[in-house]
């Protein structure tokens, strides 16, 4: 990840929840993002198939009320930080049985942004005293997302 992107991510996590991240955290973050995008798209694929469509549309993705609120918080934060262009490149699209619609691909950066806000805030819920999440906090926090997404 380019040095400019690293500083933006650090600023983003600080703004979102007062959490400091380093390069190791950003590698874990990248894994988290790709795992969750895959999970969302797998469910989206199931919804599209159930509706006899061969393209995954935005409404097929399981975006909950909480995730939608996090997306709105991301939009407000991103006005200053401008992470969206970086997130467009970060989320790898996994191979699936169905095609992913252009509108769906276009929404993924903001969905990833919403997941990122939720992740940063979840660190503080899991451990209110955390400043720089260690492996244990990453494992606990991502386990919560694995239960819900």
From TrEMBL:
<dbReference type="InterPro" id="IPR009072">
    <property type="entry name" value="Histone-fold"/>
</dbReference>
<protein>
    <submittedName>
        <fullName>DUF1931 family protein</fullName>
    </submittedName>
</protein>
<dbReference type="Pfam" id="PF09123">
    <property type="entry name" value="DUF1931"/>
</dbReference>
<dbReference type="InterPro" id="IPR015207">
    <property type="entry name" value="DUF1931"/>
</dbReference>
């Amino acid at each position: 990840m380019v040095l400019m992107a690293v500083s933006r991510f650090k600023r983003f996590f600080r703004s979102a929840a007062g959490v400091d991240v380093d390069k190791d955290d950003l590698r874990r973050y990248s894994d988290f993002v790709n795992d969750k995008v895959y999970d969302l798209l797998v469910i989206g694929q199931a919804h599209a198939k159930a509706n006899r469509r061969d393209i995954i549309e935005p409404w097929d993705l399981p975006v909950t009320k909480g995730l939608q609120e996090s997306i709105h918080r991301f939009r407000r934060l991103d006005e200053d930080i401008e992470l969206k262009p970086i997130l467009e490149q970060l989320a790898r699209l996994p191979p699936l049985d169905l095609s992913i619609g252009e509108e769906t691909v276009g929404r993924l950066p903001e969905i990833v942004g919403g997941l990122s806000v939720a992740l940063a805030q979840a660190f503080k819920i899991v451990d209110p005293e955390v400043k720089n999440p260690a492996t244990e906090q990453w494992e606990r926090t991502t386990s919560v997302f694995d239960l819900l997404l």
